[in-house]
UniProtKB/TrEMBL annotation:
It comes from the Eukaryota. Keywords: Leucine-rich repeat, Repeat, Signal. InterPro entries: Leu-rich_rpt, LRR_dom_sf, LRR_N_plant-typ. The keyword Repeat applies. The keyword Iron does not apply. Residues 1-28 form the signal peptide. This is Leucine-rich repeat-containing N-terminal plant-type domain-containing protein. Residues 29-69 form the Leucine-rich repeat-containing N-terminal plant-type domain.
């Protein structure tokens, strides 16, 4: 005869499993928050504009400078004229529903990550008045929705997008 397991033990194991599943679901739904928080960690923010970016929230839709659609997916990131400095990281490519990326008039440096070419819904990429360097990634040419690239006062080479996408270099 098999030993009998008390029902209270089964309840405890069941509750632990449910909590684990719920935590996993919350973690998956916070992928966009994780991506934005990774960006925050890359940036110096002397004016505290990213102060509301709390990685413990279920999603980033309540964060300042972040706009979400009715399904709570990030569609706009507007850090324009925020006096942040640092680099743009590849983690932004995890914002798969992003339509507007506005990073103008900051002190951003380094290269534009080629991973931004994964943002299939991106309509506008505004990098005007930063200190970016390197080549404009050819991966941006794969963005069929991209209509505007605003870039000026940076040290970018290119454009590799000529004839592939409409763009405005703000010249």
């Amino acid at each position: 005869m098999a030993p009998r397991v008390p029902s209270s033990s089964l309840l405890l194991v069941g509750a632990a499993l449910l909590l684990g599943l719920a935590a996993g679901a919350a973690r998956a739904s916070n992928e966009e928050g994780d991506a934005l928080y990774a960006l925050r960690m890359r940036l110096s923010d002397p004016n505290g504009v990213l102060q509301s970016w709390d990685p413990t929230l279920v999603n980033p839709c309540t964060w300042f400078h972040v706009t979400c659609d009715t399904a709570s997916r990030v569609v706009r990131l507007d850090l324009g004229n925020s006096n942040v400095s640092g680099s743009i990281g590849p983690e932004l490519s995890r914002l798969v529903n992003l339509q507007y990326l506005e990073l103008y008039r900051n002190n951003l440096n380094g290269e534009i990550p080629k991973e931004l070419g994964k943002l299939k819904n991106l309509i506008s990429l505004d990098l005007y008045a930063n200190k970016l360097t390197g080549r404009i990634p050819k991966s941006l040419s794969k963005l069929g929705s991209l209509r505007f690239i605003f870039e000026n006062n940076s040290r970018l080479n290119g454009p590799e997008l000529q004839g592939l996408v409409s763009y405005d270099f703000g010249c």
